[in-house]
Design goal:
With 279 residues, this protein is an alpha/beta fold. It folds into 2 domains: 139 residues, HUPs (Rossmann fold), CATH 3.40.50.620; 126 residues, 3-Layer(aba) Sandwich (Rossmann fold), CATH 3.40.50.620. A 10-stranded mixed beta sheet has the order 3-2-1-4-5-10-9-6-7-8, with helices on both faces. α5 links the parallel β4 and β5. α8 packs parallel to α9. The longest helix is centred in the first third of the chain and has 23 residues. The chain starts with a strand and ends in a 5-residue tail after the last strand.
């Protein structure tokens, strides 16, 4: 079973992420877990029932959070998708990473707003933290997507040998969704090479595309970020996929935090797979 974790809050972006996760679960016969982070002024788990009565405002927040989680669960159930929910008493986004690692999720789906990152409990750089640290692939969704799953996926890379395992996980996801992949190498001034050399490296990745079509593309641009975003726009892509080193950004493309910049600036959904956990 394909297990999906969706951190949620009261934002429209969480709604978009939840909707996409449910659609993925339908195609994969998977299960969705909705998770909400709630900060409390005390260690709520350790309180007795009597002690909880000293914090009526917190009890009200918990009631509202549980109602929200139940609403998301009903959304999944109405679509015929198995689901559950988790309320974590923390404001630290590390709670998401730890929970995902402990339970072995196959995918984390997160709603996000432009350059400010994920809203509510996950505001700002919290998105980058999950993208960098999560052991599971992370799919960041910016807006409601009616036509999902994605058909045309751009996988941008340097196509060095080290990204092979991460690519295999991405290819498996795209195959499951019934899509195809456009392999992209961005040629810029700092890392220029001939098209023949770039496509020679891509050839090994084409061989991994046993169950789905893959195309080779070399695109000239000022820098990798602009190249990826412009190519995806030119091609009318549905999703951008990246293999990331975590702190160092996109593998083989040396600009610091490139993956996070793509996540922040792309209007398309972005799927990120950490290289150390590609297999």
């Amino acid at each position: 079973m394909y297990n999906i974790l969706v951190p949620v809050d009261l934002s429209d972006y969480a709604e978009a992420a939840a909707s996409v996760a449910v659609k993925i679960a339908l195609h994969s016969r998977g299960k969705v877990t909705f998770m909400h982070l709630l900060a409390t002024p005390v260690d709520w788990v350790s309180l007795t029932v009597e002690e909880e009565g000293n914090f009526p405002e917190v009890k009200q927040e918990i009631t509202e959070a549980k109602a929200m989680l139940n609403r998301f669960k009903e959304l999944a159930n109405e679509a015929g998708v198995q689901s559950e929910h988790v309320l974590e008493f923390s404001q630290e986004v590390k709670g998401i990473v730890d929970h995902a690692s402990k339970h072995g999720y196959d995918l984390i789906v997160m709603g996000s707003h432009g350059t400010s990152g994920v809203i509510g409990a996950l505001l700002g750089t919290k998105t980058q933290h999950v993208v960098r640290q999560a052991t599971a692939p992370v799919l960041v969704v910016k807006q409601p997507i009616v036509d999902f799953p994605p058909k045309q996926v751009v996988f941008a890379s340097s196509f060095r040998e080290e990204v092979g395992e991460a690519f295999a996980k991405i290819a498996s996801f795209v195959h499951m969704m019934g899509g195809y992949i456009k392999l992209l190498y961005v040629n810029d001034r700092e890392n220029f090479e001939t098209t023949r050399r770039s496509k020679a490296r891509m050839a090994a990745f084409i061989q991994q595309c046993v169950h789905l079509p893959c195309e080779q593309h070399v695109y000239n641009a000022e820098n990798p970020e602009k190249g990826i975003l412009q190519f995806a726009e030119d091609q009318g892509a549905d999703l951008i996929a990246l293999a990331t080193h975590g702190r160092t950004g996109l593998a083989g493309m040396l600009k610091q935090s490139l993956t996070e910049q793509i996540v922040n600036h792309a209007s398309l959904p972005v799927l990120s797979v950490h290289l150390e956990t590609g297999s």
